[in-house]
Amino acid sequence: MHILLTGAAGFIGMHTALRLLARGDTVLGIDNLNDYYDVALKQARLAPLRQHAGFQFEQIDVADRQAMARLFAGERFDAVVHLAAQAGVRYSITHPNAYLDSNLSGFGHVLEGCRAQQLGHLVYASSSSVYGGNTKMPFEETDAVDHPVSLYAATKKANELMAHTYSHLYGLPTTGLRFFTVYGPWGRPDMAYYSFTQAMLAGHPIKVFNHGQMKRDFTYIDDIVEGVLRVLDKPATPQNAGGPPYRIFNIGNHDPVPLLEFIGCIETALGRTADKQFLPMQDGDVPATYASTDALREWVGFAPSTPLAEGIQRFVAWYRQYHQV
Q1: CB within 8 Å of 27: residues ≥ 6 apart
Q2: What is the pLDDT of residues 17-73, one digit of tens each?
Q3: Which distant-in-sequence residues (6+ apart) come within 8 Å of 279 by Cβ?
């Protein structure tokens, strides 16, 4: 297939592109290369992609309506994997316009391009953050998600609603994937596992929020990408007679890990003990995430399962090599 992949210089985007290229698909990757975190890391992710004859990169912001319209007018795609977004729960509290532009307007431009091409399938990144204040565990796709606790979460829920509308009105097959705390090599520096590793190697204390009373369903990057590709290859169909071709799936490890156990995995991988600074819960955070993966397994015969200790070991090995520490 010929795939449009947005967010190609991102963490999940890079790994997804590599898998698509390895299996023989061609990929047009776009990214705005913004400075939310080190642009050099984004360029380093693009380097191995550029070595593939089947990969083409264009620096385009999905929030740029005219650029996106030209992109869809000038090229024919078999499917779109939309991973571009302004990420981060806490950043959305201080920089809301970045989320309104990228996650709402940008997603609208992607939907419009897909509609114009009568595209075969749009797969897009949602987030476990949409579950917000929900307390029933594990989180299931059929749960109501009407109480977001961050603007980031609200934009991801809005994406699901927008996709449903286009599936209903135009018959566009759309599949949203609610990612649960993705980690691994080439990850984002703003994520806890990355910043903890950085601080511990530098001999600095780490900030442990909610006094360590948190649980997260950590999901290894290779499992995420496997889920993305399997879902991509099975376009959404109506869930009931006369319904839209619209699906939503959790992609999580189905194994919530206490924060202090997570830190312990990093300590073991690094061979050193963290100096922990215990702090209250931050605005926008939730105490626990836990993915039900029954629907994903039933749909594509797969659910993530990489043990956290194994995934952290792989990340630390990559971190030491990339940062030469």
Answers
A1: 2, 3, 5, 8, 17, 20, 21, 49, 52, 54, 55, 56
A2: 999 999 999 999 999 999 999 999 999 999 999 999 999 999 999 999 999 999 999
A3: 207, 208, 209, 210, 211
The share of the chain scoring above pLDDT 70, in percent, equals 100
CA distance 16 to 223: 11
Q: Could you tell me which of 269, 274, 259, 272 has the C-alpha nearest to residue 206? A: 274
Torsion of CA 108, 110, 112, 115, to 10 degrees: -130
> What is the token pair recorded at 107?
């997603």
Q: How far is CA 154 from the centre of its chain?
A: 15
Catalytic center residues? 152
Q: What is the C-alpha to C-alpha distance for residues 282 and 277, in angstroms, rounded to an integer?
A: 14
Buried b (16+ CB within 10 A) or exposed e, 83-107: bbbbbbbebbeeeeebbbebbbebb
Whether this model's pTM surpasses 0.85:
yes
Taking all residues of the chain, what is their mean pLDDT, rounded to a whole number? 95
| Residue 185 structure tokens | 């090599």
Query: Is a pLDDT exceeding 80 seen at residue 284?
Result: no
Residues 256-281 have a mean pLDDT of 93
Q: What is the DSSP string of 142-210?
A: TS-----SSHHHHHHHHHHHHHHHHHHHH---EEEEEE-SEESTT--TTSHHHHHHHHHHHT--EEEGG
Is residue 152 predicted with pLDDT exceeding 80? Answer: yes
